[in-house]
Amino acid sequence: MAVSGAAVPIADQSAQTIPAEWPRGIDISSWQHPAGAQIDWNAVRSAGVTFAIVKATEGMTYTNPYFALDRLRALQTGLVVGAYHYARPVLPITTAVEQADRFLATTGLTRSNGHLAPILDLEADGSLSADQLTAWTRAFLEEIETRTGRTPILYTYRSFWTDTMKNTTSFSRYPLWFAIYNGSSSSGSLPGGWQKWAMWQFTSSGSVPGITGNVDMNAVCCGVDALAASADGRISEIDRRYGSDSRVRSALGTAIRDEEPAGGGGRWRQFEQGLLFWSVATGVHEAHGGIGAKYLNLGGSNSFLGRPTSDEVDAETTGSRQSVFQGGRIYWSAATDAHEVHGAILNHYLSLGGAGSDLGLPISDEYPVGGGHQSAFQYGWLRWDADSGTVAVTRP
Prior knowledge:
396 residues; 8-stranded mixed barrel
């Protein structure tokens, strides 16, 4: 999307030191409609603004009455558009999912070009503890990613994150919209383990033709290509991986169903010979062949294995393969077929050398025995004792 050559009039003149090639944008709410005043979106676009983020909802009861029309008219004038939800955290944690679903009911899934990913505005704690607020935020964001297939954006500011959120690094994988009004050409150091920001809200006192009163101003790092990439909701992360990786295409074949939400969060798609799973936490990984079939048979991401955290790779012994999941591993060879190993038994197995140990490959899934659980291997057994919590090796 081309950037107009006209400069955006900004009341905070020190912010003019931000590199000129960084796209400038605004974020608005009903405050930009005093006494019902309308926004002249053509004037906004002519002033050099390239994107507009509109407040959609707040908590469980408020919907911005100007949201739908503002977003539509901004889009019609050629602006990239985005929508945000102002979080009102409250217990129980399930209210996060309810707020996320209400937000999406207002905005739609934004799976089209010209729309930024959904945004969570987090600056109220609802008297929740840091741990509770972390759990609430995670539930909201994971509901958004599961429903839309897009990685949501998180808006916050430094003192809220360092003090209220106790500077948790749990969300550094989400794109950051960072608010700091320091009058500089740089936002400075970031909290929460973030190494970079996606958007920077650098002033709340911007002045833009077509808008009555002050308006928040933002920049996208670090050019129009970055803005265009962020605003393309047509291609999912699963699509990108499949389209860019010839090895994956060869292993999986053609898609046989549409992408859809996965149990435990994220998205998945089934192909002729396997699966692709995605979540923000785990990335995109495949499971195919015997391992993929075993995984589906166990329940896929709804099972104790959760989502895959690796593609299928060689195991430690010749001719064997393995895939790593959140809750365990599946091993396969032509001689032994596919079997899972998880929990304490897996930890002990790996400490011995895994498939490269003298136990060899698993020849059974884990199964219950008196007082615990056991897994059988080519050359022995590993048994977990419930009373002691220990794992013992038995060899023939």
